[in-house]
Write a structure and sequence with these properties.
alpha+beta; about 350 residues
Amino acid sequence: MKLKGQHDTQNTILIFCLTISLLAVSCFSAGAAESGATSPADSLMAPGERFSDNNDGTVTDRKTGLMWLKNGRPTFGAMTWEDTYAYCSNLKFADHDDWYLPSRKDWASIIDTQNENPALVQPNPFENIVVYLNYWARDDSKLSRLHGYTLNLYRGKTGLSKKTVPAFPWPVRRAIALADNQTDILPAVRDGMFLRDQLKSRHVLLRFRDANDLDTLDWKLQLSPAVAGVRYLQAINRSQKVQQRLRNKLDALFERVQVLLDMRKPMDKIIVEVYSDRDELKAARNVSILTDSAKETGFYDNERRIIGISLSSVTTQVLGYHIALAVIDGNVSVRQPRKVANIMAMYVDQSLR
């Protein structure tokens, strides 16, 4: 015989379990939709047309615009997250030096869980795929930056691991050459928004469309002697070419932000992508991956560590604000709450006026 109280308790437990199950299914479905993962059937390309072997040790995914190393095991052994991140960022291969550690979004674009050993979209030309150990993704855990996401390519499962646990790298980069008829590609590669050229400074990788973008940005970034410092101010004034002048301005601004925040930890180059106006910027931001914070004048994508700015509204203060978000993100072991990071970035903004 069951008492009424026991019966109510059992019903409560049953309802709770059903609710948790429904939430889990909902979250999984939302995550799959957000990841952008597709199966071969979802693509308009015929089998075998999606991946292009470039015959230089690289493979271009014509659906996403990403270029991967053909060799899925580029290092002799597995490494910690930090070593893996540094390996990808410093890699120079096939005349490219802008490789990076893939994000979960990047991984999702080539994983097909209907396959296994490996769980990749088929057919593909990749070689030496590791299935007995994990690969690293560049994403930090939302709970702690001491943990990172890993991918196991035997069945395509994602997990969390301490960053000191060894796993393999598989470098990726944004491809320059895409199929003429390709339109279903990732942010900043769409027709009319493709940033074809790059200008590298000590701290910044600037992506822009043409020389007019450089001229406009050079004119917009006016650095006071207090911001530039004596060394950079002299270099800026001596520069005859706009490219060299911009390099010095970007590096001076970056280092000034580091001083204002008292955060001077060595970092990989931050990427700054230039858009012509706010509408173009907004379109890029809306399809950007996990944009952590944004203003109408720019955004900072914390997953890919990319800054987007609009030439129509950029100023030294605006760019400094977003550089501050990137510096904060690159110097702390535990990601700061959005409000805290924004307050610190606003301090930089005000200090640059």
